[in-house]
Amino acid sequence: MSEIHDVVIIGSGPAGYTAAIYTARAQLKPLLFGSSVFVGGSLTTTTEVENFPGFPEGVDGPELMTRMRAQAERFGAQMIDDDITAVDLTGPVKLLTDSTGTVHQARTVIVATGSGYRKLGIAKEEELSGRGVSWCATCDGFFFKGRDIIVVGGGDTAMEEATFLTRFATSVTVVHRRSALRASKVMQERAFADDKISFAFDTEIAELKQDGTMLGGVTLRDVATGATRDLAATGLFIAIGHDPRTELFQGQLDLDDAGYLKVASHSTRTNIPGVFGAGDVVDHTYRQAITAAGSGASAALDAERYLATLTAPRRTGEREAAIPA
Fold first, then answer.
1. Annotation marks residue 230 as catalytic
2. 136 an active-site residue?
3. pLDDT of 315 strictly over 60
4. pTM score, two decimals?
């Protein structure tokens, strides 16, 4: 015997919390699984957010997520800091299993699991996150006025971030493992034409140097010869890509070649009725807190409209006869 929920949300970043706020206000009593170790999503690793509307003085990322969570709870959303480890989304009642083996039932599911920045995988990378090491130039570039900055990567994102950072930095050094950039021609030309940007090709980051609690520089290594050299910098922006957190849904929900969740145009609907996607798990392009929040609202509205089409009673708290084996 298991309670049937109108809405279950998987993910606790801006998209998940906004979806919870909207569905809770619609009296759908959503159940949100926010992860056992990563509650609040990527913004919990950001020291200050200055571009989220309504906070003219800025707000710490963790505080913003705490406020969003409290707002959803105020309207009746139930939060569980646990992981969903298995799903069966195929039937009209979706089955979601948490880490304890408990199976939860839902008529609609909003997937807001986000994406993770790819990391270098070297010592002190995590320790210096928010202390000179960042994965988002538009989030953190403002804090590096007059600094010497390094950008790691060779694609369009790296060139876009390097160009953006010249608004604040004294210098930007692009470090790339290959002898040529992978970025589009227009992005390369824009970066090459900027006097503040220099390039270190056939080079990788071998070590992060610490100055007190902050980043003080890096050791660069030539990938061909192994020769190393030190480079002073107080900012390191890593732009080597993102990995959407969609492993749980492979084989059930349609994914694109990069692993992002596919949704129908001008909606958040996936290929399975009653399942919706929101936030960075579907967003290749913007990956901002405000765009994720907006798509969370859209997913909530889509879920509410879907529930309105169902003929069966939809009161959260009714019981299903049995859970299929």
1. no
2. yes
3. no
4. 0.73
